[in-house]
Design brief:
Blueprint lengths: L4 E7 L32 E6 L6 H4 L3 E3 L19 E6 L2 E5 L4 E6 L5 E5 L30 E8 L5 E5 L5 H8 L17 E7 L2 E7 L26 E7 L11 H6 L7 E6 L5
Parallel strand pairs: 1-3, 2-4, 9-11, 9-12, 12-13
Antiparallel strand pairs: 1-8, 2-7, 5-6, 5-8, 10-11
Length: about 280
């Protein structure tokens, strides 16, 4: 299932509390304070992965929380740190602060990692408060709370070429011919409901092509699938307008894609012809 937008609540782990303890061992008189420091809480890390193509996996849960640190122990033993929670996201994912609608980071490189919320610091045990004047302190710190927030993830596919045009113009057929991608194709009219990526090998060149669901007139007003998927062509180096030439009659819809080509001329738009085999 293709998911390109999701809102998540995230929380880093809380730091462990410091311990109040005194060393009591045989042959060690007046062992003194020995309370250990609590472990730091785990952070939430977002990592870009080329093996992920959709946000479906992270959308299965609406909230994520990293493990908290363990409290300090006796004999000056520190508590165990909470492990970091790593969420793998597709390359091209943008991360927004959902409440302020501010872009926080953009994951554009495979393996890129960003700490989105940091874990709380562990509290100090009573051994850290010993001084020459107070050699037996009975005080320790509480662990700090981890950071929390609500983020919005938006996926913008990264491709070298994007195929746009009206529904049933032959975009999916073109992608299936020039690459190993297998989008849904049939001999009856229907529209693609999600973008498809394909790798095109031509001589010594290799590039990525994406098939964008069809855009119809009035999409900005909510007609059809709307223009929600247009974000996936923002990162493309070239846009290929696929024109349906099957209705060879005066005033046919072949001219419609040309109406939108003006806004993308800076990206480099190239017209293409589809459905030439339709009688």
């Amino acid at each position: 299932m293709f998911v390109d937008r999701v809102t998540l609540k995230i929380r880093a782990g809380r730091g462990g509390d410091g311990a109040i303890s005194f060393l009591r061992e045989k042959y060690v008189p007046r062992g003194g304070p020995a309370g250990g420091t609590g472990g730091d809480g785990g952070s939430v890390i977002l990592r870009a992965s080329e093996h992920k193509k959709t946000l479906y996996d992270v959308s299965l849960k609406r909230s994520y929380e990293a493990p908290s640190g363990q409290p300090g122990r006796k004999k000056n033993q520190s508590g165990q740190k909470g492990g970091d929670l790593i969420l793998d996201l597709p390359v091209g994912t943008q991360v927004f602060d959902h409440l302020r609608n501010v872009l926080m980071t953009d994951l554009v490189v495979d393996g890129q990692e960003v700490v989105i919320v940091r874990g709380g610091r562990g509290g100090r045990g009573n051994a850290s408060f010993a001084t020459s004047e107070n050699q037996a302190p009975r005080v320790a710190e509480k662990g700090e709370e981890g950071e929390a927030g609500e983020i919005r993830l938006e996926l913008k596919l990264i491709a070298d070429a994007g195929i746009s045009g009206l529904p049933n113009a032959g975009k999916s057929t073109l992608l299936s011919v020039v690459s190993a991608a297998r989008p849904q194709i049939a001999d009856y009219p229907f529209t693609t409901l999600r973008p498809y990526l394909g790798v095109v090998d031509h001589r010594s060149f290799r590039f990525i092509m994406v098939d964008i669901p069809g855009i119809i007139e009035g999409a900005s007003e909510g007609a059809g699938l709307g223009f929600e998927f247009l974000r996936h062509v923002e990162r493309t180096r070239l846009i290929l307008h696929c024109v349906d030439c099957s209705p060879l009659t005066p005033g046919c819809r072949c001219s419609l894609p040309g109406k939108t080509s003006g806004r993308n001329r800076s990206c480099g738009c190239v017209p293409g012809i589809g459905n030439v085999d339709v009688p």
